[in-house]
Amino acid sequence: MAGNFVIGCGVMVVAGSLNDLTRSLQVSVALGGQLIAAAAVVMCLGAPLLAAAVGGWDRRRLLTLALVWYALGHAACAAMPNYATLLPVRAASMLAAAVFTPQAAAAIGWLAPPEQRGRAITFIFLGWSVASVFGMPLHSYIGEALGWRWAFALVALLGLGAAAWVWSAMPDGVRPPALSLRAWREVLTHPALMAIVAVTALSGAGQFTVFSYFAPYYKALLGAGATEISLLFAWFGAFSLVGNLLLSRHIDRIGAARAVAVLLGGIALALAAWPLVGGYAAMAAVLVPWALGSFSSNSAQQARLGQAAPVLAPALMALNTSAIYLGQAVGAAGGGAIVAAHEAAGAEGRAVYTGLPFVGLAWVLAALALSLWADRRLRHDGN
After folding, report:
1. What's the burial of 113, exposed, middle or buried (CB within 10 Å: 0-12/13-18/19+)?
2. pLDDT tens digit string along 131-157?
3. Biggest CA pair distance of the chain
C-alpha cells in the first residue's frame, strides 16, 4: 500500500503542479498536460511487456528496485532545465509504475487465501486513494507556493522511504508462477475478460479528460489560488479514500461487478452535472460521487479480474494496469487537444475548458455499458 501511495503521488504530481510547471517552463497548458499522456503511454505499454520480462523475479527485490528507480527518476526530473529534457526523463521514470502496481497486486493475490483475495487486492490499492488525499493537495500547494521542482523532489524522497519499507515488510521467496505463451493467448482471446480490461481504459479516458486539467480549470472557473486548489484536491482525495475503504470492506459481499456498475454510475452523474457548476459549494458537491468512484472503481476492477480467473491473475493485473494508463493517456491527450483547439479559436477563461465534461461523460457511459455486458457474458459462460 505504501508503494502504491508513492506511485499515485508520482502519477498525479504533474496534474497537481501544472500551473507552475507551465509558467516555469513557458509552455501552454495543453502541452504541459502531455507530460501526463506521455507517461501514461509508457506505463500502458510497459505493464504487460515488463510483466513477461520479470515473471521469475523475487517480488521483494523487484518491488523494492522499482521504487528506487521511481525515486531516482523523479529526482532527475526536478533537475531538468526545460520541457524538452523533462519529457523523456519523466517517461523513463514511469517504467517503475508499470512494474510496481500490477506486480504488487499479483503478489498479494497470490499470498492471500481465496476468500480474502478481493479485500487484499483492494486494500493495497488504498495507497492510490491516500495519495489523492495527501499527495495531490500537497503537490498542488508546493507547486503554487515553492515551484513544481519541489513537488517532484518530494516524490523522490517518498519513493526512497517506501522502498525501504517494502524491503523490510515483504518476505523472501514470493514468486507467482510465470505465465506461458499459451496462458497469455488465453487471456487475450477471452472476450469477457478483455471487455473488463477495456472498461478500465474507457473509464480512465473519461476521468482524465477532465481530471488532468483540474488545477487550471479551478483557476479559470473559480479564480482559485494555491490554498483553494489544494483544498479542492484534498476534498476529492478524502472521498476517494472513503470510497476505497467502503469498497474494501464490502466488495466480497456485494460482488466486484455490481460495485463497478454503481461506482461508474456515480462518476457519470458527476460529469453530467459538471457544466452546471458555478461556485465552490457546487463544485464540492459534484466532486463527491466522482471521488467515491474514482480510485475504488479501479480497485474493484482488479479484484474482479483476480476473482474471475485467479490462475491468469498476473497477466490480467498487468493488462488492467496497462488499461488504467491507456485511459489516462487518451484522456489527457484528448482533453489537451480540446483545450488547444479552444485556445486557438481565441477562447478565454472557463470557455477554454468547454467540452471536456461532455467528452468525459461519453467515455464513462461507454465503460458502464461494456461492464454490464461483460458481467452478463461471464454469468452465461459460467452456466
Report:
1. exposed
2. 777 777 787 788 878 889 999 999 999
3. 60
Contacts of 230 (CB under 8 A, 6+ apart): 137, 138, 140, 141, 144
How far apart are the C-alpha atoms of 183 and 99, rounded to whole Å? 20
Domain count, the chain: 1
The string of DSSP codes covering 232-277 is HHHHHHHHHHHHHHHHHHHHHHH-HHHHHHHHHHHHHHHHHHGGG-
Query: Can you read off the three cell numbers belonging to residue 351?
Result: 470557455
Is pTM beyond 0.85? Reply is: no
Question: What's the CATH code of the domain at 40?
Answer: 1.20.1250.20
Residue 32, C-alpha cell as written in the block: 504541459
Amino acid symbol at 203: S
Sole residue written with cell 464490502: 250
pLDDT tens digit string along 233-276?
Answer: 889 888 988 888 888 788 878 888 999 999 999 999 999 999 88
Q: Take residue 368 and report the three cell numbers written for it.
A: 458502464
Q: Please identify which residue in the block is written with the cell numbers 463527491.
A: 288
C-alpha span between 95 and 83 (Å, rounded): 19
Length of the chain: 383
CA dist., res. 270 & res. 291, Å (int)? 9
Which residues form the domain of 29? 2-382
Phi, psi of 5 (to 5 degrees): -60, -45
Of 192, 188, 251, the C-alpha closest to 51 is 188
When pLDDT is cut at 50, 70 and 90, the band that residue 373 belongs to is very high
